[in-house]
Design a protein that fits this description.
Bound molecules: 2-acetamido-2-deoxy-beta-D-glucopyranose
Oligomer: single chain
Distance between the termini: 61 Å
Structural class: mainly alpha
CATH class of the largest domain: Alpha Beta
Length: 254
């Protein structure tokens, strides 16, 4: 039975790999979500090696942000995206683009007012649509690219520029941002943000396993990878956590 399932998996591996640009040897296919996706073996890896590796509950981490806040940009670019790449497999990451915005209902549509002006509302909407239309391994690099780009260009130009390199369906996302449906998606972000207990005081604002404290916020802002590694309860941690496992006692004593 066991042997049979191994053979079935192998056959799947081989037949799926023939139809892709997967240029990695099979023993690396489950080494990261990115490679697994390229090699089209995500399901097989999730069902086999990843479940074996994950022996603790995922660390819930949520970022509340607004698209044009320079400190949100800094957090996403310097901390969140690198952490997602390094230890994403042990994170249950949620991002909520709304922040310090406000909403009022006008007829059947929500009208948004944003801290950094109307362009920020457009940026939040684009992010909400991207989150809806893509899975996380696609919307994270896309939003990371847009956050970097909006330091100098507006959100719509950034959405277009960042689309092709990240295989994002830009047409659909920009269309969504103009529709009632996109308006509702953004309202869901407002609802999530307003549900925070305690209410957020600033953005970026993070919660770790549902909790916000100044200590968590500081640790996330300074070294998110370390914070996620230390919070994860599983015994087998990702490679990137090894650096933090034991204190570095290497010294040149006199
Ligand atoms: C991931 O987080 C979301 C909330 O952001 C929650 O609804 C979901 O249950 C969490 N999943 C796991 C596996 O912890
Ligand atoms: C994410 O979406 C892409 C593109 O639609 C797809 O190829 C990939 O299999 C998806 N990955 C997961 C983990 O669902
Ligand atoms: C993550 O959030 C989900 C949903 O709220 C919860 O069931 C789970 O216990 C949380 N995980 C941890 C490690 O706190």
């Amino acid at each position: 039975m066991k042997l049979l399932s191994v053979i079935v998996i192998l056959v799947n591996f081989i037949s799926t790999s023939l139809s892709t640009n997967c240029n990695f040897p099979p023993d690396l296919w489950c080494s990261s979500k990115e490679i697994a996706e390229l090699c089209k073996v995500t399901e097989q890896c999730a069902a086999n090696s990843w479940n074996v590796k994950l022996d603790g509950p995922l660390v819930n981490f949520t970022l509340y942000y607004e698209s044009l806040c320079p400190y949100c940009r800094e957090f996403i670019v310097d901390q969140l995206f690198p952490a997602y790449q390094a230890v994403g497999e042990i994170m249950n990451l949620t991002i909520v683009p709304y922040g310090n915005a406000q909403e009022t209902l006008h007829g059947s549509l929500w009208a948004y007012t944003c801290q950094h002006g109307p362009n920020e509302c457009v940026g939040n909407l684009i992010d909400s649509c991207a989150i809806y239309y893509m899975n996380q391994s696609f919307y994270m690099p896309y939003i990371y690219c847009m956050e970097k780009a909006t330091a100098t260009i507006d959100p719509i130009t950034a959405a277009k520029k960042c689309g092709p390199p990240n295989s994002a369906p830009v047409g659909g996302i920009l269309e969504c941002a103009k529709t009632v449906f996109g308006n509702r998606l953004e309202h869901e972000m407002a609802v999530k943000t307003d549900a925070l207990q305690p209410q957020h005081q600033y953005v970026p604002w993070v919660t770790l396993n549902g909790v916000h404290t100044e200590k968590i916020q500081d640790e996330a802002s300074n070294h998110l990878i370390k914070l996620i590694c230390e919070t994860y309860q599983g015994s087998k941690k990702p490679e990137a956590c090894k650096t933090f496992e034991k204190p570095n006692t290497n010294r040149c004593h006199k």
